[in-house]
Design goal:
4 strands, 4 helices, two-stranded antiparallel ribbon, single chain, mainly alpha
């Protein structure tokens, strides 16, 4: 199907693939595998995905959805929380890689591959949210450092002004 739309007076056409990812026949064909992998690798594959409630990290169950929600509601993140966010992002990216390799290399049923792709998209959503939190924490840290520097400069200016006044 081809849609036409206009962008600043230019006529542009965009082809949209309306074919479903799988046909639910129980066999994952190469074409279905390619469509699922393309979906995972698209820029906004995480959009609208649900963050997994739990994830297993190093043999321990981790309530991912609740943890991210708590971090989002927290106004100021501490250094240990920032370190935990960094480690969590690393674990989630490794999990994404493992699940993607399963879809790429193993012979699995098509509906299992679709389930894995939905889980991967949820993991990507979690990574996106965590990166946003880390970026927010970095901005707060940078602002605080800038404020401290400005306060130091103001103190020095006042001292210089006082010294000149005394002379």
């Amino acid at each position: 199907m081809i849609f036409k739309y206009y962008w600043y007076g230019e006529n542009m056409e965009k082809k949209i693939d309306l074919e479903p990812y799988i046909n639910y026949d129980g066999i994952l064909s190469d074409d279905e595998r390619k469509r699922i992998l393309d979906r995972i690798e698209s820029a906004f594959s995480w959009l609208g995905a649900t963050i997994p409630k739990e994830i297993e990290i190093q043999g321990k169950k981790y309530k991912l959805q609740q943890e991210i929600q708590n971090l989002i509601l927290n106004n100021e993140l501490t250094d240990p929380e920032n370190d935990r966010i960094t480690r969590l992002i690393s674990h989630l990216e490794n999990e994404k890689k493992v699940l993607t390799d399963i879809i790429k290399k193993e012979s699995i049923a098509d509906y299992d591959a679709l389930e894995l792709s939905n889980r991967i998209c949820g993991i990507l959503r979690a990574v996106h949210d965590l990166r946003g939190l880390a970026k927010r924490a970095y901005k707060v840290k940078a602002f605080n450092a800038k404020q401290e520097l400005m306060d130091t400069i103001d103190d020095e200016k006042r001292w210089l002004k006082y010294v000149k006044k005394i002379k």
